[in-house]
Amino acid sequence: MAFRAGQTFLFPLNDENQREHLWIIATEPNSEGLFAIASFTSLMGAKDQTVIFHKAEHPFLKWDTCISYAQAETMSAEKLQAHLQCGRAKMHRDATPAVLQLVLQGFSASDFTKNRVREFVRTARGHMT
After folding, report:
1. Residue 128 has what pLDDT?
2. Which of 29, 81, 85, 92 shows the smallest number of beta carbons within 10 Å?
């Protein structure tokens, strides 16, 4: 499967210890197949409120939600494909371009984003047309 910025997926599935969250692929895959991902999480009790979404902004959201930039990472297409094939992840409806844009802006705005992830996104955005 070819992945692209704006796609979302549920992860982790079938894990008794963790609740599934909606994740977004935030950047296009680079030449090595790596892209940045970020997790949506409940706004209640969240330390990072850099980017807030309301439940109407994506079908999975059932309450006000924010992006957990502290959990943002890079992921390879191969790793996501493996999670999909073994049932630990499931693709969901794409985010709107407006949601994707806010998520991308938050990588640099949030104090919680890891420096290496912030730099990855900055480099990826520099290559976006």
Report:
1. 60
2. 85
pTM assigned to the model: 0.91
Q: Which of 46, 56, 50, 34 has the alpha carbon at shortest distance from 127?
A: 34
Say which CATH topology domain 8-127 has: SH3 type barrels. (2.30.30)
The CB-side HSE value for 2 (13 A sphere, CA atoms) comes to 4
Contact 107, 117 (CB under 8 A): yes
| For the chain, domain boundaries | 8-127
The residues, ordered by sequence, that sit 6+ positions from 103 with a Cβ below 8 Å of its Cβ are: 24, 26, 38, 51, 67, 95
Residue stretches of the chain with pLDDT short of 50: 129
- Give every CB contact of residue 21 below 8 A, 6+ residues apart in sequence: 10, 11, 39, 40, 41
Tokens 């970020």, residue?
38
> Which residues have CB under 8 Å from 124's CB, separation 6+?
27, 28, 30, 35, 36
